[in-house]
Amino acid sequence: MAKSFGAGSTTDDVLEGFDLTGKRVLVTGVSAGLGVETARTLVAHGAYVVGAARDLAKAKAATSKIKPAEGSTAGLEIVALDLASLASVRACADTLLAAGQPFDLIIANAGVMACPQGTTADGFETQFGTNHLGHFVLINRIAPLLRPGGRVVNVSSLGHRSADVDLDDPNFEHAPYNEFVAYGRSKTANILFAVEFDRRYKPLGIRATAIHPGAIQTELARYRPPEATEQLIASINANRLPGSPEFKWKTLAQGAATQIWAGLVAAPDEVGGLYCEDCHVADQRGEDLMRGGVRAYALDSERAKALWAKSEELTGEHFEPPHPGA
Q1: Which of 9, 85, 186, 187 is the catalytic position?
Q2: d(Cα 180, Cα 127) in Å, to the nearest integer?
Q3: What is d(CA 14, CA 255) in angstroms, rounded to the nearest whole number?
Q4: 245 vs 70: which has the higher pLDDT
Q5: How many Å apart are CA 322 and CA 196, to the nearest integer?
Q6: What is the maximum alpha-carbon separation in the chain?
């Protein structure tokens, strides 16, 4: 009987009894928070992890205590990746392709949240450009390295509920900038990317999903004033359903559990093309005040196709999966 997991489950809970020897995993954003915890537990269970980060020195310091067991084939290496620069993204992809080592799982974990208005090196709005377009180009370029049976996990957020993508004005050239709307757009894009990637690669035995890790106190919220966080928590508690628990922060191990579960534990047909939270597939919810659930627009297959086409237009690259059997 399959084990049942929930909001309180940790990375080690979901991987209990799993031997990941021989598995290779790419994790972006291994310089802090969820990325470090994800790398730690994967290596502890025998996987070889390639961690990508913009600040190599910071990433090496943050992961310095991650050591494989003696005699294990597990390990961790760090590669340079600045998702806010497509030149860096392409250089990283080229390095991985030249090495030719396959991957069983890609976890697109890195990102920025609610930052002041700005642009990436390529002129895209910072959050859409970093959280979505950077990963869009990276994952598509290295997709040939994914083994049959492999998976892609995009780390999205409950923040997707604040905004759908805007394909007519992705860079806020016409609408006034709002940092949380921009964040919501980018997180919706993470889900839609998983929906379309899963559709395209399912015939090859490769699946994709998106997840919400939960509310964790990490560097991601560095631009958010403490009082704004306090007001949000008060609002969540005031509007929770009768009998439901009050808001509670997750630990890093609890926060990283869902991406591990979706990438390695859940059945592929259970999570492929969907959005997960608290180690289960999320329900679709409308314009309510629930803490959980996924907006229908984030799983819209036609919207996902349109975002893919717009992303190709913006990045100047066209991606198609190889023909099955090729």
Answers
A1: 187
A2: 10
A3: 12
A4: 70
A5: 15
A6: 58
CB 148 within 8 A of CB 205: yes
- Count helices and strands (H / E) in the chain: 12, 8
183 is catalytic: yes
Whole-number Cα distances in Å, 142 to 48, 138, 154, 285: 17, 6, 15, 34
Catalytic pick among 48, 183, 201, 275: 183
Confidence of residue 2 (pLDDT cuts 50, 70, 90): low
198 alpha-carbon distance from chain centroid = 14
Q: What percent of the chain has pLDDT over 90?
A: 80
Domains of the chain, each with CATH number or no CATH: 18-315 (3.40.50.720)
Q: Which of 21, 22, 308, 321 is nearest to 142 (CA)?
A: 321
Dihedral sign for Cα 24, 29, 31, 36, please: negative
Q: Tell me: pLDDT of 223 over 80.
A: no
Catalytic residue among 85, 156, 157, 186: 156
Catalytic, 177? Answer no
pTM (two decimals):
0.90
Q: What is the pLDDT of residues 150-168, one digit of tens each?
A: 999 999 998 999 999 999 9
Is 223 designated active site?
A: no
Q: What is the DSSP letter of 282?
A: P
- Residue 301 CB contacts under 8 Å (≥ 6 apart), including other chains: 195, 196, 199
